[in-house]
Amino acid sequence: MLRRELMFAASSDPGQVFDVLAARFLVRAASATTRRWTCLDTADWRLHRAGMTLRDARHGRSAELVLQIRDAERVAASSRVRSWPRRLADVPPSIVRDRIAPTVGVRALLPLADVGIRSVPLQLLDDVGKTRVRVRVDQQRLIGTTRAAVPLRVLIAPLRGYERDGQRCVEMLTDALAATSGSTDAATAAMTAAGHRPGEAAASMPDLDPRAPAPESLARVLRTWARIMAAARPGVLTDIDPEYLHDLRTAVRATRSLLKLSDSVLTASDVTRLAEEFAWLGRLTSPLRDIDVQQLELNGRGAVDLAGLEEHLEPLRRHVAERRRLALRHLRGQLQSPRGESLLGSWDAVLDRIASPDVVGPTTSSVASAQIVAAYRKIRRAAPLITGETVADDLHDLRKRCKRMRYVLDAYESVCAPEPHRAVSGALKKLQSCLGDIQDSVVHRDTLAVAAASLQRRQVPVDTMLAVGALRERIAQRDVVARKGLDERLRSFCAPAMAAQIKALVEESV
Amino acid sequence: MKTVATYSIKGGVGKTTTAVNLAYLAARDGVRTLLWDLDPQGAATYVFRVRPRVKGGSERVVRGKSSLEAALKGTDFDNLDLLPADFTYRHMDIQLDSAKRPTRQLGRVLEPLAPHFDLLILDCPPSISLVSENVLHAADTVLVPLIPTALSVRTLDQLTEFLQSVKRAPRLLAFFSMVDRRKRLHRELVDELPRQRDDIAATSIPALSVIEQMSVHRAPVAHYAPRSIAAQRYEQLAAEALPSRAAALPHPGVTD
C-alpha cells in the first residue's frame, strides 16, 4: 500500500478536500478525532540530520513515542514520559530509545513543536460501495501562546490494487489546493511554524565578502559566536545536557582566539577589556567541563574500557556527581552575577561599533590569509619540540595553537579556496583529535587522583580503590596509544605538502 | 503462510460463507490474510464488492506468466486482501492439465505470496477436478462443510478415501453447516457422526437467515451482526480450524 502525504497551505479549507474528492468518488466521512503530538529533537538536530522524526503522540489517555526513519521504517513504543526536555537516560527503556540512542548520544530531547490535530477520516467509495482509497485530513495548529496554523496535512492510502485511484486523488488535490512552500513533512512543517530552522547548524559561519573591511567581517563572525553563547547559556543554567556547556566553551574559545589573532585589526580598548572577560568566562567553565568529561568516561561513553570495573566504580560515580553538583552551583552563581549577566550585552554593543560603516581597515581576504599563515606558523614552530615524552602542558599549548587555527579556518572558509581548505581542515581535525585524546587522558587522570584521595579519606571499599587504580592504569595506556599516533599526524601536518596547501588556500583568498 | 481450503464436492453447502467469515475473523485479529476466490461464480468476490476480473484470466494465473501480487485487491477490512474470481476460471482444469506437474501447479504459483501473508484461504468451486486436486495438494487444512444428510456423509467418505492416495495429505476437518435442529435427521447426524469419526469439528453452523443476508449486506456476518449466534459460531469454528492466530498487529490504515 503506497501512502502519500500532502501538505497544503495552512489557510486551506479542509472542506475543500471533501468537495474535490466528491467530484469523482462517493466520500464517506467518519467522526473527527483530536490528538496532539510533540516533536522532539536535540538542540543540534541530530535526529533530523540522521533522517529521523521523533514524536510523542498523545490520543486520549494513550501516549506513544513514534519514530519515523526516512520513509522506510516506523517504530513505536508506549511513552511514559510526562514532560520534556529529558535526557535519554531518563526516558524509560523501549525499542524507540534503543534505536535513537546512538544518534542522540548525551544530548537531551527537547520539545520543539507542540501540535494539536483534528483529524477527519474519509473513505472514498466506488459505484458499488467498495472502498478504494482511505484519506485522512489533519487540521493542525501549534499549541501554546502563538497558536500558529500549521499546513493542512492530507494522507492518502489507496487499498491494494487501487493505486491508480490514489494517484488520481493526489492529482485532484494538488490541482485544486494551494501547495505549501518549503518543507513537505508534518514534523518539519510544525517545527518551522514554531520558529525553528530544522537541520541548521548553530555554528555555520556567515558568507564573507573578500573585499569588505576586515573589522566588518570579523564582527559578523564574532556575532555568530555570540549568538551561540547566548543560545547555550540557558541550557547551561538549567543543565539540560552537558553539550550546552561544551557549546558555550567552544564559542568563548573561538571568540578569544579570533580576538587574539586580530589585535592589529580590532584596536578599541573595550575589545581588550572584553577579551579579558571572555578569559574569565572560559576559566569559570573549566571545572564543570572537566567533571563532565570524567562523568562521560565513567558512564561508559568515553574511550576507556570499563569491563570488569563497572560494579566497583559506583562510589566514585557518586563522588563525581556530588562534585559536579557543587561545580554547577558555582558556575550558575557566576553566570547569574552582574558580571556574568552583562557580558554578552556589552559585547553586542562593542560588535555594533566594530561593524559600523565608519570603521575602515584592510580587506577581509588579506587579513584572512595573514591570520591563517600566522596560526600555521605557530604550530610549525612548536612542532620540533614535540616528542613522545613531551610534558602535558606543552602538548596542551600545541592543542591551543591548533584550535586557534581551526577557528580562523572556520571563520574565513567562505573566502578561501575550497579544495585546499578541505585538505587543511581535515588534517588539522585529525591532529586535534589526537591531542584531544591525550588532553582528556591527562584531565581524567588528574581528576581521578583528586577523587581517589577523597575516597580514601571516606574509607570506601577496597575493591573501589583497586578499581580506581585499574582505571588510572587503563587511562595511562590510552595516553600511550594516543601519543604514538601524534608524531605521525604532526609531521604530516607540518610537511611541505601541507605548507603548499596553505599557500594555495591563502593565494586564492588574496 | 498456512493454507486453508473450504471444499466440498457439493454446491450450496456454505463454502463461500465459511471462507469469507473465517478470512475476516483472522484478519480482524491481525493475521495478514489472503482469500482466493477460485469459484468462477465469484460469490466471495461479490461479497467484498470487488470486480470479478483478473488481468490475463485463468491462463495467465495458471502459467505463472504474471505475478499474482498484481492481481490482489485490498478489501474494506484491514489485513484482508482478495484474489478475485474471474469467469475464465471455468477453464482452469484444461489449463492445469497442460502444465508440467498438473496437480501441483497452483501450489507453485502461490509460493511468491508466502512472505506477504500469514494465512491463505482458498474458496473452491464445487466439483472434483484437477483444480480441487491442486487445492488438496496445496492446503494444510481442508475444511469441509457438511449438510446433515446421508448423501453429504457419503461425499465426505469419498473425499477421505481420495485423500488417502495423496502423498502429503492435508488435515481434513469437516463441520456441520446449515443445521436445522427442528429436523430429526439433522439432530441425529449432528449427535451421532462425531462419535464415529474424529475429523468432525465440535462447532456446527446453524441455518440462520442472518447468514443468508450476507449477500445483501455484502460483508462478513461477523462484521454486520457481530453479536449474532452465527457470528459466535464462526468465531468458534475459526478457533478450531485456523492455525493459532498471531498477536494483533498495529492498525495499518491511515496512521502517522
Mean pLDDT of chain A equals 89
Strand content of chain B: 5-15%
Number of helical elements of chain A: 15
Low-confidence stretches of chain A: none
Radius of gyration of chain B: 18 Å
Structural class determined from secondary elements of chain B: alpha/beta
- Shape, principal axes of CA atoms of chain B: globular
Overall shape of chain A:
globular
Number of helices of chain B: 12
- Give the fraction of residues assigned to helices of chain A: 55-70%
The greatest interface here is: A-B, 27 and 16 residues
Low-confidence stretches of chain B: 246-255
Beta-strand content bin of chain A: 15-25%
Major beta sheet, strand line-up of chain B: 3-4-2-5-1-6-7
The count of β-strands of chain B is 7
Helix content of chain B: 25-40%
Explain what the structure shows:
The complex is a heterodimer of chains A (510) and B (256). Chain A is α+β, with helices and mostly antiparallel strands and 510 residues long. In chain A, 37% of the residues are buried. The model of chain A has no long low-confidence stretch (mean pLDDT 89). In chain A, a hairpin with a 2-residue loop joins strand 4 (52-59) and strand 5. The longest helix of chain A is centred in the C-terminal third of the chain and has 40 residues, at 418-457. Chain A contains 15 helices and ten strands. Chain A starts with a strand and ends with a helix. Chain A has helices at 14-22, 46-49, 95-104, 163-176, 186-193, 214-238, 243-261, 269-298, 314-335, 338-354, 364-382, 392-411, 418-457, 462-494, 496-509; strands at residues 4-8, 26-29, 33-41, 52-59, 62-69, 73-78, 86-87, 108-125, 131-142, 149-158. The radius of gyration of chain A is 28 Å and the shape is globular. In chain A, strands 1, 2, 3, 4, 5, 6, 7, 8, 9 and 10 form a ten-stranded antiparallel β-sheet that branches. With 256 residues, chain B is an alpha/beta fold. In chain B, 39% of the residues lie in helices and 13% in strands. Chain B contains twelve helices and seven strands. Chain B has helices at residues 15-28, 43-47, 57-63, 92-97, 105-110, 130-138, 150-163, 184-196, 209-212, 214-217, 221-224, 229-241; strands at 2-6, 33-37, 73-74, 80-83, 119-123, 141-146, 171-176. In chain B, helix 1 (15-28) packs across helix 12. Classes of the chains: A alpha+beta (510), B alpha/beta (256). The A-B interface holds A 1, 3, 37, 55, 57, 66, 68, 74, 76, 121, 123, 126, 128-131, 134-136, 155-157, 159-162, 186 and B 48-50, 71-76, 81, 218, 250, 252-254, 256.
